[in-house]
Amino acid sequence: MSPKWRGGRPAKFGPAARDQICRIAACKPTELGLPFTTWSLAKLVDYLAEHAWIRVSTETVRKILRQEGVSWQATKTWKASKDPDFIPKKTRILDLYDHPPADGRVICVDEFGPLNLQPRPGRGWFPRGRPGRLRATYTRTKGIRHMFAALDLASGQMFYRFRDRKRWPQFLDFCKQLRRRFPAGKLYLVCDNYGPHGKAEVLTWCAANDIELVHTPTNASWLNWIECEFTAVRYFTLDGSDYPSHAAQETAIAGYLRWRNRHCHPKRHFAVNSKIRRPDYLPNVA
């Protein structure tokens, strides 16, 4: 018996066939002249047999895709930034994150909402086949609310205020609240390009009170660190909810933020090893 023989049937599909299966699976069916936009395993198997001369079962295709790191995922949207000052703005924000100025404090600011009253789908642990249920119909008769929020990178804490509107007077009032909370040193407020953030009255007051508004590039709000925190707020307070009133909804959000602030840590290491850190990163490439 050969000492190199270890039993078992040799692999039926070599690297070339496996690579071809993965490449075809990654293509859109319409690009291959097919009259549908999404693959199923059965349709993929039929195409491989007819056009790639690879006869394989659906289970083998599933295993090959999994072994090669190809998984079934939802399509996501991406809006590229066409800001001509993308690179200097991005560099400025990343430098503030990596090397906070000794003369002040870096705070990420944004609005969360609109907060309306409606049943929101979510996930949870339930007996098999018996998921939690929410009412399917609703009417929006109680208006909307907005939350102004700020993430202090030095402590990791979040501060917030609920308002009926999110126009420049409300944003200016929130800036004043932050100035009262941190009376000493310069404040660097990272914010997006929403109109009220660039209002003349806001800019004038901030300049007179040692506050610098650091704007993210157009269509690049993902550079604002607070967006990550908003994802958690939405997941832990809104998903799977059906609040009867704005007061109940705001109480739940406030309770979560108080819990979060008791367990927070200083924010460091933003987007480590991300492609946005590369000097040749192009803003119009997803």
Automatic annotation (TrEMBL):
InterPro entries for this protein: RNaseH-like_sf (IPR012337), RNaseH_sf (IPR036397), Tc1-like_DDE_dom (IPR038717), Transpos_IS630-like (IPR047655)
A Pfam family that the UniProt record links to this protein: HTH_32
UniProt-listed Gene3D superfamilies: Ribonuclease H-like superfamily/Ribonuclease H
Annotated GO MF terms: nucleic acid binding
Domain of life: Bacteria
Residue span, Tc1-like transposase DDE domain: 105-235
Database matches in NCBIfam families: transpos_IS630
Protein name (Swiss-Prot/TrEMBL): IS630 family transposase
Species: Actinophytocola xanthii
